[in-house]
UniProtKB/TrEMBL annotation:
One of its GO terms (cellular component) is plasma membrane. Residues 1-25 are annotated as: Disordered. This is Interferon-induced transmembrane protein 5. One of its GO terms (biological process) is bone morphogenesis. The chain crosses the membrane at residues 34-56, 82-106. Belongs to the CD225/Dispanin family. Coiled coil: none annotated. The keyword Membrane applies. Keywords: Membrane, Transmembrane, Transmembrane helix. It comes from Cuculus canorus (Common cuckoo). Residues 1-20 have a biased composition (Basic and acidic residues).
Length: 131
């Protein structure tokens, strides 16, 4: 059962055209995600996942040029997964770090504001303690 979309063979035909036409399905070549891999390798290289994605992208392109579509799909799928992991890690981790820094600064400012009375020393004019 083929579940690829769009399904052209199940489209209703208009009432005035009832000609039988043979539909040829042209399989699109797999995408190699090479540009995305290069971007992840150069700009957002999280744990070298961008470099691994680049290696799989080059393998997918080589297999596509050689005519091995199934191997190209396999390597393309791996490149897409590594690219997604590298992009997610490079976006989520700085956001998480920024959130931790902001909450730490807020906590420390509240702590410093509450402990101001403990660390202040009053230089008042009461000389009763000196005598």
């Amino acid at each position: 059962m083929d579940t690829s979309y769009p399904r052209e063979d199940h489209l209703p035909t208009p009432a005035h055209k009832r000609e039988q036409s043979s539909t040829t399905r042209i399989s699109l070549p797999p995408r190699d995600h090479l540009v995305w891999s290069i971007f992840n390798t150069i700009y957002m290289n999280f744990c070298c996942l961008g470099f691994v994605a680049l290696a799989f992208s080059v393998k997918a392109r080589d297999r596509k040029v050689a005519g091995d579509v199934e191997a190209a799909r396999h390597f393309s799928s791996k490149a897409r997964c590594y690219n997604a992991l590298a992009t997610a890690g490079s976006v989520v981790l700085p956001l998480l770090l920024a959130a931790l820094v902001i909450t730490g600064v807020i906590h420390l400012s509240k702590l410093a504001h509450e402990s101001v009375g403990f660390f202040t020393y009053q230089f008042s004019g009461s000389d009763d303690e000196d005598k």
